Every structure is written in C-alpha cells, then in structure tokens.
Amino acid sequence: MSYRIEEKLSIDSNSILEFKNYLNSKTAKQIYQPRKIESLYFENNKREMYNDSLEGLTPRKKIRVRNYPDAEDSKLYLETKVSSIEGRFKTRTIIDENKFNYLKKTGILDSQYGLCKPYLYVAYKRQYFKINDVRISIDNNIVYKIYSHGIFQNDLNSIVEIKTSIKKDLDKLIEDFPFQKKRFSKYCNAVEKLISL
For residue 182, is pLDDT > 80? Predict the structure, then answer.
C-alpha cells in the first residue's frame, strides 16, 4: 500500500479563476482530459463513516463504487479510502454490472462498520494537473443526490485536492500552495446538504 498526503481547498466560484491563474504561473501541466466522475457511497445505519470523518477520527473509511459515465473507461471500481495515523491510502477493485447490482441490493459487510448500504451519490467534473511531484485536481459542477429517492443539491463551490507522497515536506507543500487549507469531504458535505431534505 502507498500512503500519501492529501490537502483540500474549498474555493468559491469567484476565486477559482485566481487559483487556475496561480497554477499557470507555476507552469502546471494538464495530465488528463477533464472527465465526469460519479460515486455511490455506502454507509451503515448509524452514519458512522460520516461521524468519524466529521470528528477526524482514525482509522476511518469511506466505501464507494466509482465510474466515469462519459469516458471510454466504462469500468466500475469498488474503492475503499482509508485514513489512518500513518497517512491515507486507497484500495480499488474492478467489478462488473452484476456485482454492482448485487452490492446495491445486499450492501457491503465491512469489518469496521458492519453492514453498509448504498446511501448517496456524488457527481462532478474533474480537471487534472501536475507540478513536479504534486498532483492537483479541481472538481466543479458538483451534485449530491440521495440514493433512495433521488433528491439532489448542487454545490456551487469548487473543490481542489492536492496529493503527493507521504515523504513530501508538508511545510514546503503549504508554502507552494498559499491558499487556505481545510479538512473537507464531499461525502460529508453531501450528507449535511441533504440530511434535512
């Protein structure tokens, strides 16, 4: 497994151009074409993954099935994102449509969180950049949707994720990106926006 550093920025629509101009000034390279991403998150009936993420507890997980609806890559990926004291890492397994339908029907039994059922969708358009050993993604056109009855909310902000090796000097990373960092989760934001609907 490969641990990594992840920093996130929530940037309002008025400031995202400033951030993109900053990337241009650092000669950031676009490494992939922009693409739409859709993830179905699974959760237990106590919403413990949400609560653990909110509290910043470790170890914690997020379990999802991800796909790229508009891309040539039509695969479905069962992913588990783990945040631990040592760092963050992600496991990923390709599944087929039959397996996906089975998981949606029966749920996923997790050793930490027990039975997790499909809970909500998060969809967005992602752009990919790189500066030296740092990968930067910008997510916009974000939509949150409850799985069971299709109620949705839009998020007008853009989410920037900065990812690099666990060996990277964190102070240097912060110096390289002089924007306010925050612990942020699109999944948690989705729960908060949809929970009262």
Answer: no
- Specify the 3-state DSSP secondary structure of 98: helix
Strands 76-84, 29-43: pairing is unpaired
The pTM for the full model equals 0.90
* Cβ-proximal residues to 136 (8 Å cutoff; 6+ apart), any chain: 23, 28, 128, 129, 130, 160, 161, 162, 163
Exposure on the CB side of residue 73, measured as CA atoms within 13 A: 13
CA gap 177, 53 in Å, rounded? 24
The C-alpha atoms of residue 63 and residue 90 are separated, in whole angstroms, by: 10
Q: With pLDDT > 70 as the criterion, what percentage of the chain qualifies?
A: 93
Confidence check: pLDDT of 197 > 60: no
* pLDDT score recorded for residue 13: 77
What domains are defined for the chain? 4-194 (3.20.100.30)
119-135 pLDDT, tens per residue?
999 999 999 999 988 99
Phi–psi pair at 176, nearest 5 degrees: -70, -25
Residues 6+ apart with CB under 8 A from 83: 53, 58, 59, 60, 61
Cβ–Cβ under 8 Å, residues 126 and 139: yes
